[in-house]
């Protein structure tokens, strides 16, 4: 596998960053994940826009223009012969002596690699996803795609322990989002519900794409918070992310959702979204 580090393409096993990198020492950096399906990047402009916004919010200069980012992504994809999978970008504040403050002229560290992985033909689809709920232990600026992901790692470990594939995080009695996805329910009144954007959640690129499809289909989208109790009474539940696209949820904390099978609306939105990418 070929990786990209600060201007150089090299074999992944030879790629390294200094111990004094602030991403390593402080989690002082941000990341993005874009899916590649049939050789096409999914909603990449939106991911690069969010990358720019995350950097701006924490005061790291964006090292490249969108065109340059895209060119590097495409070269990495070509060098890896990748047709389907994920492309990961990380930007940290850079390398300096360990100190909470950093020199003003620091050069950001840029790391990129690809992961071959079935995105479209996800084996988990036929059965649907089991989800557990966990307290949301994260900081108060989840709209920034920070590499400080300890709470998410712990949530995913708890999910795996319970043989579930995702954890929905709870704060103040309502679901914020998945550990690495946006949470949705479809109510008995056929409302598609996801919570409004704020500092509490990541503005999902897939969320926005699904929202557009919901509007095109003249379905009702309602932006509001929802509780676990409401999710358990829902007709369907699903989550969205670059890596899972749209994934039906069949149980929460061991309780079946709807029929206990992947919901037809979730599956339809998934196929509609994939169609827009090809
Ligand atoms: N996760 N919420 C959180 C906390 C996320 O980490 C993600 C994405 C999303 C969905 O965002 P998008 O639709 O733009 O991928 C929501 C990525 C895939 C990850 O961490 O691997």
UniProtKB/TrEMBL annotation:
GO terms for molecular function: branched-chain-amino-acid transaminase activity. GO terms for biological process: amino acid biosynthetic process; branched-chain amino acid biosynthetic process. It comes from the Bacteria. The keyword Hydrolase does not apply. It catalyses: L-isoleucine + 2-oxoglutarate = (S)-3-methyl-2-oxopentanoate + L-glutamate; L-leucine + 2-oxoglutarate = 4-methyl-2-oxopentanoate + L-glutamate; L-valine + 2-oxoglutarate = 3-methyl-2-oxobutanoate + L-glutamate. It is an enzyme of class 2 (transferase). Pathway: Amino-acid biosynthesis; L-leucine biosynthesis; L-leucine from 3-methyl-2-oxobutanoate: step 4/4; Amino-acid biosynthesis; L-isoleucine biosynthesis; L-isoleucine from 2-oxobutanoate: step 4/4; Amino-acid biosynthesis; L-valine biosynthesis; L-valine from pyruvate: step 4/4. This is Probable branched-chain-amino-acid aminotransferase. It comes from Paramesorhizobium deserti. The lineage of its organism: Bacteria, Pseudomonadati, Pseudomonadota, Alphaproteobacteria, Hyphomicrobiales.
């Amino acid at each position: 596998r070929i990786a990209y580090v600060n201007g150089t393409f090299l074999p992944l096993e030879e790629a390294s960053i200094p111990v004094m990198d602030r991403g390593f020492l402080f989690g002082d950096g941000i990341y993005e994940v874009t899916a590649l399906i049939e050789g096409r990047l999914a909603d990449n402009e939106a991911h690069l826009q969010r990358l720019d916004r995350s950097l701006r919010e924490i005061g790291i200069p964006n090292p490249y223009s969108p065109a340059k980012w895209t060119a590097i992504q495409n070269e990495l994809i070509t060098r890896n012969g990748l047709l389907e999978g994920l492309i990961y970008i990380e930007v940290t504040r850079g390398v300096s002596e360990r100190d909470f403050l950093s020199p003003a002229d620091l050069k950001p560290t840029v790391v990129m690699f690809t992961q071959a992985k079935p995105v479209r033909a996800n084996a988990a689809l036929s059965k649907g996803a089991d989800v557990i709920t966990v307290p949301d232990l994260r900081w108060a600026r989840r709209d920034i795609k920070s590499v400080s992901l300890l709470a998410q790692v712990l949530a995913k470990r708890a999910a795996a322990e319970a043989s579930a594939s995702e954890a929905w995080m709870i704060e103040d009695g309502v679901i914020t989002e998945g550990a690495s996805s946006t949470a949705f329910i479809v109510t008995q009144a056929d409302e598609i519900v996801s919570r409004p954007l704020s500092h509490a959640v990541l503005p999902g690129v897939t969320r926005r794409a699904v929202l557009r499809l919901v509007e095109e289909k003249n379905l009702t989208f309602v932006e509001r918070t929802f509780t676990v109790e409401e999710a358990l009474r829902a007709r369907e539940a699903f989550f969205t992310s670059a890596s899972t696209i749209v994934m039906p949820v069949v149980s929460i904390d061991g309780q079946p959702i709807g029929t206990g099978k992947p919901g037809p609306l979730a599956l339809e939105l998934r196929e509609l979204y994939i169609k827009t990418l090809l």
